[in-house]
Design a protein that fits this description.
The chain is α+β, with helices and mostly antiparallel strands and 155 residues long. The protein has a single domain, classed as Sufe protein. Chain: A. It has 6 helices and 3 strands, in the order αβββααααα. It has a 3-stranded antiparallel sheet. The chain starts with a helix and ends in a 5-residue tail after the last helix.
Length: 155
Amino acid sequence: MYNKKVLQYFKHPRNYGKIKNPDGIGKVGNIICGDVMRLYIKVSKNKKGEIIKDIKFETYGCVAAIASSSIITNLAKGKTIREALKLNKNKIIDSLGKLPPIKIHCSVLAIDALLEAIYDYLIKNKKIIPKELKKRHQRIEKEKKIIEEKYKEWT
């Protein structure tokens, strides 16, 4: 079901853990599939602009969720905020060599976690939120409320 690269990132996740005093935190999850992700970023400035200096994750989920969380940290680390905003689920899937179709949502959750961490950073620092990021955040919040309402006895 999973290729060697996915299993490698699952068995030996990169950048696993928490960042003390992170600049941004992305918290996402899907109660239906059970995956929950937290992604932490530390941002610094250099001549290219604001870069993701450090990034870590904590994920409770399946093989694909952990592998997707791990690979997104590799893809985003060292990138500017602007570059990180361009990452998408296809970049995760390509970097992992493939995911089973039923597990594609794990790559979406990993991207959502990164985007939510960036959103959190921008809000905390009173910076301009790009239109697409604002729309994505609103979608994530809307989906979260729908799931919480539908499964309120479980949350």
